[in-house]
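Sequence in, structure out.
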Amino acid sequence: MATSVHFVHSRTSANRTSTVRTVTHRLFAALPVPLPDAEQLCSWARSVLDPDEVRVLEPTYLHATIAFYAEATDEQRDRLIDAVRKARFDPFNLVGRDARVFGANAFAVELVPDQETVREFSSFTDRLRGNPGTVDPLRFLLSEAALMGKPTRMPIQFHVTIGRFKSDSTQAGERYSAPKHVVRFNKLCLYESHREPHGSRYEVLTSN
């Protein structure tokens, strides 16, 4: 599981050491890919990748990440849940471009704005950046990530991870020409990631 347990030692009045159990959570805010689009992307990935080298994700797990929160406390988790529920989200389209290796082992499709909804997309990213004093819940999602030591780079380079190489990939520079695909993003979710023997399991905590 991705929920971490930390043990903090403190002194009692009798000079004995007591142990305080602190539970933390691996969370991320993201835009889920609608299932029909996710199924098409996964089907394409299976047609071009070697199953012995890459594990293609379940379609229900596909998303575009906005911010990641490592070791969030219960209190931080509750604040993030509240922010996602309150955030206004105006749907917009992103277009899938080339696929390539991101990081050590993620196989992902790059996403760029669709001209038909570029105004809605620009408004969304502007609200994410915001100003230090902005009360928009979207701005809170990024500022909270920065406080936890996981600042989000701006502008965000949106991508959707479709698969994971089973070992660190040697194909970091290789690009795959993915079929042009327009994805309509229509909601924002907060997920918790649970580590399991065969990979991570994502649980949706809330959406707007």
